Amino acid sequence: MWIRIVLFAIALGPAVAVADPAGKSLEKDFGVGLAIGVASGPNLQFKPTSHDAHIDLGFGIGSLHAMRFQADYAWRLYYFSRDRSSVVPLYVGGGAYFTDRTWGADVGVRIPIGVQAEFAEVPVQLFGEISPEAIVYEHIARDVMAPGRDRFTLRAMMGARATF
Hints:
9-stranded antiparallel β-sheet; single chain; elongated; 1 helix; Porin
């Protein structure tokens, strides 16, 4: 099932990518890849209006075999490198997540803080982030003994994307 989702996302990428007409921009407008961490699975990134902001969508398997979907809007605050061969920004954003477990579900907010690297010679983007998270709403089935959960946590994720 996951292989089909990833292959569909990769096939869809070139159809929705917005190309730079002059071909001079190192930073690409669309990326699709895999992430490992809080939501291990497919990850999409696109830049809606400028190269100083992006939207990330991720879904996959989280801890305790939970299905998780998360969405973030992030701004690039500082560039460690911004030359002809690579772009390495520090980004901070705000977002939300939904986690569905066998014993219940929860919804929360997150603040991703991360670094990503894009390269001129290869259409690949590497990224890593940490994000403080807070549960806003939690539903637990009454007939199940659910494990204890912290309301505030610190999560991490890293991965790679093909960029278009």
